[in-house]
Specification:
Length: 351
C-alpha cells in the first residue's frame, strides 16, 4: 500500500503501469469529481491492484466525462474502498513505509475468506527482486504518432517526423510518447526484452528508456542492451525505471527506498543552475549516488530527502531523470528534458 499526494489525475494514476502490484491511497479527500474517459488512460489497463479514498462524490461533472470513477473501476474488475480515514493511513505509511494490505469486496464475507486474503497480503514479499517490466510491457512492437492534447483538436496525429526514436516499453505512459511525437519524433515502441541487435537494425537516431514498475536489478536483459547502445554512442534518455537501468548499465547500483516518491508536488533542484522545479514522481527505488562511477555525474536532487533525481554521462550522449517530465498528472517544469534529448540527437546527426 502506497500513498499519492496528487490532487487531480486519478485516472492517469490508476492506468500508470508503474503502479503494478500496488494499492494506491490518494491523500486528496474528494476523488472522482470529474469522472473518467477513454482518451486520458495512460495505458490499456488499470495496473493498480486497488484504490483507497476518503470520499467518492455522487455526481461527476466534466464535459469530457464518459463514465463515473465507480463505473470505470467496476468495468475493469478493480476493487476500491471509500470512507477511509486516508489522513491517518497516510501518517502510518509515512512512519513505516509501504505496507502489505488487501481490500475485500463481498456481500457475504466468511471468516475463512477474510483469513485467506489476510494471509496472501502478509505473504507478499514486496517489490524488491521482482521484475515487473516484462509483465506490463507490450508483447508486440507498434508505432506512435499521437501528439499532446489541445482544446480544439484533442489528441491529433503528428506529421513530418524528423527523428527515428525507439522507445523501450518497461511500462511506458502514453503522455511520454505524445511528448516525443510532438517534438518531431517517429516513435516505435518495442517490448522490454527486445535485443539490442533488433533495435540497432531499426537505425534509430535515439533510444528512449521508459518508466515502469518493480525492481530494476533483475532486468539484466535491459541492462545488456543499454550497454551495447552506450558502446555505439547512440543518444539515450531514461525516465524513472529507465533512469535506474541506465545507471546500472553504467556501473552504479540502486536501492529500495524506505519511503518512495508518489505525487505531483515534489521539489527537485538542478545541481548546475540551482533552479528548483516542482515535479511529478512515482518510484520506490532510487540510484545510489555513492556508487556512481567517474563518468556518470549527478544532475538533480530531491529537496524532500536529497535522493538522486538525475544523471548524465560525461563521455556519452546519455542521461536520465528519476521523476516524470511528462507529468500526467502534474507540472511540466522539467518537460525541457525532452528538448535536451532532441538536442543530443541533432548533435549526433551533425557529427
Amino acid at each position: 500500500v502506497v500513498f499519492n499526494t496528487s490532487m487531480t489525475g486519478y485516472q492517469e494514476i490508476l492506468t500508470d503501469p508503474s503502479y503494478a502490484k500496488q494499492i494506491i491511497t490518494l491523500t486528496y479527500p474528494h476523488i472522482g469529481n470529474t469522472g473518467t474517459n477513454e482518451e486520458d488512460n495512460e495505458s490499456d489497463h488499470v495496473w493498480a491492484s486497488g484504490l483507497v479514498i476518503r470520499d467518492l462524490p455522487l455526481l461527476a461533472s466534466n464535459w469530457r466525462s464518459e463514465q463515473s470513477l465507480s463505473e470505470f473501476l467496476k468495468s475493469r474488475n478493480v476493487v476500491a474502498i471509500a470512507e477511509i480515514d486516508t489522513r491517518r493511513l497516510t501518517r502510518i505509511l509515512r512512519e513505516k513505509g509501504p505496507l502489505n494490505g488487501c481490500i475485500i469486496a463481498s456481500s457475504a464475507l466468511s471468516d475463512s475468506a477474510a483469513g485467506d486474503a489476510g494471509k496472501l497480503a502478509k505473504d507478499f514479499t514486496g517489490l524488491k527482486g521482482m521484475d515487473l517490466a516484462k509483465v506490463v510491457s507490450t508483447k508486440e512492437s507498434y508505432g506512435w504518432d499521437s501528439g499532446v492534447w489541445d482544446l480544439i483538436g484533442g489528441y491529433g496525429s503528428v506529421r513530418g517526423a524528423e527523428y527515428n526514436v525507439v522507445a523501450y516499453d518497461f511500462g511506458v505512459k502514453r503522455n511520454i510518447l505524445r511528448m516525443l511525437a510532438a517534438r518531431g519524433c517517429k516513435v516505435t515502441v518495442v517490448p522490454a526484452e527486445t535485443s539490442a541487435a533488433e533495435v540497432l537494425a531499426m537505425n534509430p537516431d535515439g533510444i528512449f528508456l521508459s518508466n515502469g514498475p518493480g525492481d530494476p536489478e533483475p532486468c539484466d536483459y535491459a541492462v545488456a542492451a543499454i550497454k551495447e547502445f552506450l558502446d555505439q554512442s547512440i543518444p539515450l534518455f531514461g525516465i524513472c525505471l529507465g533512469c535506474q537501468l541506465l545507471a546500472i548499465a553504467c556501473g552504479a547500483q540502486t536501492v529500495k527506498m524506505q519511503l518512495g516518491h508518489h505525487g505531483a508536488n515534489h521539489p527537485v533542484q538542478d545541481l548546475s543552475s540551482k533552479k528548483v522545479m516542482i515535479t511529478s514522481q512515482n518510484h520506490g527505488f532510487a540510484v545510489d549516488q555513492a556508487t556512481l562511477p567517474g563518468n556518470l555525474k549527478a544532475t538533480h536532487k530531491s529537496l524532500f530527502d536529497d535522493s538522486l533525481q538525475g544523471i548524465e554521462r560525461t563521455d556519452k550522449p546519455a542521461f536520465g531523470f528519476q521523476g516524470h517530465p511528462e507529468a500526467s498528472p502534474g507540472p511540466h517544469d522539467v518537460a525541457p528534458l525532452f528538448d535536451h534529448f532532441i538536442e543530443l540527437m541533432q548533435a549526433a546527426k551533425l557529427s
